[in-house]
Structure formats: C-alpha cells, structure tokens
Amino acid sequence: MTTVKTKIFDQIEQAISKLNTDKISEERKEILKPLADFIQSKTDTLEPIRINFICTHNSRRSHLSQVWAQTLAFYFNVKNVQCYSGGTESTALFPMVAQTLKNTGFQIETISEGKNPIYSIKYADNEPAVIGFSKKLDDDFNPKSEFAAVMTCSQADGGCPFIAGAEKRIPITFEDPKAFDNTSQQAEKYQERSLQIATELMYVFAQIKS
Predict the structure, then answer these.
(1) Which SUPFAM superfamilies match (predicted)?
(2) Where would a tag sit more exposed on the chain, N or C end, judged by fewer CB atoms within 10 A?
(3) CB 194, CB 68: distance < 8 Å
(4) Using an 8 Å Cβ cutoff, are 108 and 95 in contact?
C-alpha cells in the first residue's frame, strides 16, 4: 500500500511558485531575520514553534500572516509550527480577507455567523484548518507562554511594548489595506498585501534548515 503525501492545494502552490523573494530589500530582510532566527533556534532544539501574529483589531494583517505562515511552514516541511493571531482588541475578521484568501485557492468555510464570524481556512486536504476569528492577543485560544509575538502593525507595536508570556517580540509591520475599503482598488490592494506577506514569510521559512 502506497501513501500519498499531502499536498497544498494546486492553486495555492501555483501562487507560491510565482512569489519572488528577490524583490525583498536588504533593509526588509534585516527586519525579517529575528523571526527566521527564532524558528531556526526552535527547530535546532526540536521544540514547538509557536508564533502569534498581533495587530490592533485582529481583522486583516494578523490573519493574513497567520494563514500564510502556517501554509508556508507546511510547504517547506518545517515541523512543529503552530501559528496564531490576536489583537489589542477584538472586532471581526474582515470579509475581504477571507475573500482574498479564497481567491488564492484556500478553502474557506463559515463555521458561525454573527458580529465576529468564525472561519475554517484550509490549505491542504489532510492538514488541520486554520480557525480564523477576531480575538484579543491573550485569548484562551492563543498560547500563554513560549511563543514569538510578531507585531504586524505599527499601532499595536507602539501600544504594546510588553507582551505577557512572549519569549520574543518581533516587529514586522505591514501597511493596512483598510485604507482602500469601499474603493475600486479594494480587491487589488488586499491581494497585493496578501502576496507581500506571503513573499516575506516565504523568505523566512525558505531559510530554515532541519
């Protein structure tokens, strides 16, 4: 009996194959280095790798980062990675984020409706879904210790100089696509931000040696 290795969904794999890490500036690579170093140090010691991506409202950038990091860890066969997201306050995962990921090939299912919907976000048939919903960074859904806190927005970075339980605090901030909400450029700008995050996290995980 032959076993078939789980593959990332074809459309996502195609999107990843088109990402170009050569476009990342040297300055930006220096910003990404602490995250790569954290992942590598945990890989070397065979410890769990927990990464909590944090933004003010846990509605856009932190979710895109969480989903892409989990996907790219699997893509590059980096073991024991568990990605989370949280905010300094909870609101809702913005629907355009879910739509952007769906357009890239992720399977999105709405588990519950309401003011703060819960989404199942899958990148491969046999891998656990990322559960997407807005929550505070210290929510019970998130780790309490031994994690890296990656600050994805400057407001949360400035407002949270200390993250309780974080082993390492790493600012990797992205421009907010919210500025283009309800404009003709909305879909384009969300896709642009999603692919920037994917490209930079691809650069990080591509460096990890098992």
Answers:
(1) Phosphotyrosine protein phosphatases I (SSF52788)
(2) N
(3) yes
(4) no
